[in-house]
């Protein structure tokens, strides 16, 4: 049915199927306008050229142009009308039955009665005479006792699927062929019993089955063995047993179960071995890992073999071993170079004041100091003792003659390396650099400390030295200064004069100690303060004490002071809180060593004149 609309309507009622719609509406006459540009071809549309009013042109519309004036059903240019746009269509369709629906048997007239009179397709029971479609010669169309009979054979082709089914069956002449270790084959004219001849390891009396390579292919499916089974490789280069899993296994590769089927040990699908009873050794030789108890033990039975080796990679960078807490915190470790790091190392039998040494022994701090510094005694023989960087710190000389001591080359040392030379002989000890150049002499009964302060060369300036102590002193009274000194009944017996020192073998030496300097704030120390020899600090905040310049040092010293002469002074830090004292260098007055003095400690310094208006202060 086609519908043609020639004027504007508000309601259209359609009671038949619509195959096409023709719309032809006539509107009212409009106001005269610019009009449509001339030209154009069929199928073109009028489009705007730009934003200017009435600026239009003819354009070919992509996709085939405008809709046709008429639209045929299933045409190339259809128009779709929604069901709701057709009056009552939605309501009417809702009242209709679906194109696909069902009816009960009772909805069809006489269907129930007629079906009840029919025979079932499965095992039907017939009465009276049964007529069949078998009309070929030789067939009887009646039944006797409900069973069809015939006077001639029924061809195989007349029986549905018989030919096909028989073709899939074996005939009596079919032969089963067997090869060792399987025997008992033959044709199917009689029953056949197949026998499997096992390998030479079969011992039925003990229930042992040796499965050799000839039997392995026969075990393709699951097998249950109730007796002891043994798999023997036929050759040294042949695998004894391979358990091959699927591409992405999700179960165990191998399991050992008890009689109830409970898994006691397994090889997981990723190849890892797991045992509920732990790991233990059964051959009673060699080393093994035992986890049969709650403690994992590595047991070595061979006394001449290494118990356990942890071997790193060729370029090992990570730790070789680690001991971690349950939170994965590293408590101790051995790094790639073999260094052991631990919170503490305790040796049974040691005390809280002892330290465990690398050789396994324990030592007190005094023993460690003696072991570290070392002690060497030498009898003077008017010869030369050459020290090296392996020589002990303490060098004791005895005897009745002189000796020369040559210090190591500074290039083999580090700054701060020191030697103490104690002259217990009756001769003079001459101390030289490696070049050799004489640094000083150590008189009999005196010890001197020689400290490397530069590794740039083997000059006397590379070494700092000072006299530490005397074997004996005599006399009483106060110590006096070199200028305007007052000696009270001195007893000077055969003094020996040396450069920068005088030895009084039978006198007591006292030093004058003026009132110590009190330091309370940051500032520059004066020479006079340094010469009090003791400086106390009581501040609660950090204090920086800057040393006097080299020029001020020369100006504040007694007249005639020479190069390489020195004096010692001490800072006693009595401060609190953050009242640390830092000694800072001055102009032409350098420092060597740690210059920080924490609270509740003290530090001794040695100020040495190296040249005119040039000084260096060392932390001792």
Structure description:
The protein has 620 residues and is mainly β. Among the domains are: 62 residues, no CATH class; 46 residues, no CATH class; 49 residues, no CATH class; 96 residues; 103 residues. The protein is built from 6 helices and 44 strands. A 6-stranded mixed sheet has the order 35-37-39-43-44-41. The chain has a 5-stranded mixed sheet with strand order 24-26-28-31-32. Strand 6 and strand 7 form a beta hairpin. The longest helix is centred in the middle third of the chain and has 9 residues. The chain is elongated. The protein starts with a strand and ends with a strand. The relative contact order is 0.03. About 5% of the residues have low confidence.
Low-confidence stretches: 135-146, 200-209, 495-506
Distance between the termini: 123 Å
DSSP strand (E) fraction? Answer: 25-35%
- Tell me how many strands there are: 44
Question: Secondary-structure map with pairings?
Answer:
Blueprint: E1 2-5, E2 20-23, E3 44-48, E4 56-60, E5 70-72, H1 89-94, H2 111-116, E6 139-144, E7 147-150, H3 162-167, E8 175-176, E9 182-183, E10 186-187, E11 195-196, E12 209-211, E13 229-231, E14 254-257, E15 263-267, E16 273-275, E17 288-290, E18 297-299, E19 321-324, E20 330-334, E21 340-342, E22 355-356, E23 362-363, H4 365-373, E24 375-379, E25 384-386, E26 394-398, E27 403-406, E28 418-423, E29 429-432, E30 438-442, E31 446-452, E32 463-470, E33 496-498, E34 501-503, E35 517-519, E36 523-524, H5 527-531, E37 534-537, E38 543-546, H6 550-556, E39 566-573, E40 581-584, E41 589-592, E42 596-597, E43 602-611, E44 614-619
Parallel strand pairs: 1-2, 12-13, 24-26, 25-27, 26-28, 27-29, 35-37, 36-38, 37-39, 38-40, 41-44
Antiparallel strand pairs: 2-5, 3-4, 6-7, 8-10, 9-11, 14-15, 15-16, 17-18, 19-20, 20-21, 22-23, 28-31, 29-30, 31-32, 33-34, 39-43, 40-42, 43-44
């Amino acid at each position: 049915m086609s519908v043609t609309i020639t004027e504007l309507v508000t309601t259209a009622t359609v009671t038949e199927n619509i195959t096409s719609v023709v719309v032809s509406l006539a509107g009212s006459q409009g106001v005269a306008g610019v009009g449509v540009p001339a030209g154009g071809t069929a199928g073109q549309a009028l489009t705007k050229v730009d934003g200017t009013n009435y600026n239009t042109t003819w354009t070919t519309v992509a996709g085939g142009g405008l809709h046709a004036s008429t639209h045929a059903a299933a045409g190339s240019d259809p128009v779709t009308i929604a069901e709701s746009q057709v009056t009552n269509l939605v309501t009417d369709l809702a009242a209709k039955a679906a194109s696909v629906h069902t009816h009960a048997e009772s909805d069809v007239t006489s269907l129930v009665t007629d079906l009840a009179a029919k025979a079932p397709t499965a095992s039907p029971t017939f009465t009276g005479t049964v007529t069949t479609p078998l009309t070929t010669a030789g067939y009887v169309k009646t039944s006797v006792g409900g069973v069809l009979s015939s006077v001639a054979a029924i061809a195989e082709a007349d029986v549905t699927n018989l030919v096909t089914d028989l073709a899939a069956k074996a005939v009596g002449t079919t032969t089963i062929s067997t090869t060792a270790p399987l025997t008992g084959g033959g044709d199917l004219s009689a029953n056949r019993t197949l026998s499997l001849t096992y390998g030479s390891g079969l011992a039925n009396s003990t229930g042992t089955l040796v499965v050799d390579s000839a039997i392995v292919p026969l075990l393709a499916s699951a097998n249950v063995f109730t007796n002891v089974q043994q798999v023997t490789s036929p050759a040294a280069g042949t695998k004894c047993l391979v358990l091959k899993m699927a591409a992405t296994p999700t179960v165990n590769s191998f399991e050992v179960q008890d009689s109830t089927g409970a898994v006691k040990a397994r090889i997981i699908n990723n190849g890892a071995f797991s045992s509920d009873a732990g790991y233990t050794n059964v051959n009673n030789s060699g080393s093994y890992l035992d986890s049969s108890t709650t403690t994992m033990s590595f047991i070595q039975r061979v006394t001449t073999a290494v118990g356990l080796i942890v071997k790193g990679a060729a370029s090992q960078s990570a730790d070789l071993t680690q001991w971690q807490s349950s939170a994965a915190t590293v408590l101790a470790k051995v790094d790639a170079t073999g260094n052991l790091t631990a919170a503490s190392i305790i040796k049974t039998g040691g005390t809280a004041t002892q330290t465990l040494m690398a050789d396994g022994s324990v030592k007190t701090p005094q023993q460690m100091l003696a072991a570290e510094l070392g002690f060497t005694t030498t009898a003077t023989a008017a010869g030369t003792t050459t020290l090296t960087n392996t020589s002990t710190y303490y060098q004791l000389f005895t005897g009745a003659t002189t000796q020369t001591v040559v210090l190591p080359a500074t290039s083999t040392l580090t700054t701060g390396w020191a030697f103490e030379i104690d002259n217990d002989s009756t001769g003079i000890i001459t101390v030289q650099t490696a070049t050799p150049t004489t640094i000083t002499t150590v008189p009999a009964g005196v010890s001197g400390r020689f400290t490397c302060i530069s590794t740039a060369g083997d000059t006397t300036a590379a070494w700092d030295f000072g006299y530490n102590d005397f074997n004996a002193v005599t006399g009483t009274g106060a110590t006096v200064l070199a200028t305007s000194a007052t000696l009270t009944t001195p007893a000077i017996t055969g003094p020996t004069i040396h450069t920068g020192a005088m030895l009084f073998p039978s006198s007591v030496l006292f030093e004058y100690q003026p009132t110590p300097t009190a330091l309370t704030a940051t500032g520059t120390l004066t020479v006079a303060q340094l010469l009090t020899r003791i400086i106390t600090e009581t501040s609660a905040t950090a204090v920086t004490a800057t040393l006097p310049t080299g020029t001020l040092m020369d100006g504040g010293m007694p007249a005639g002071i020479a190069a390489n002469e020195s004096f010692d002074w001490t800072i006693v830090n009595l401060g609190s809180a953050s009242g640390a004292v830092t000694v800072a260098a001055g102009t032409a007055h350098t420092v060597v060593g740690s210059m920080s003095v924490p609270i509740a400690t003290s530090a001794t310094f040695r100020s040495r004149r190296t040249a005119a208006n040039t000084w260096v202060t060392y932390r001792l």
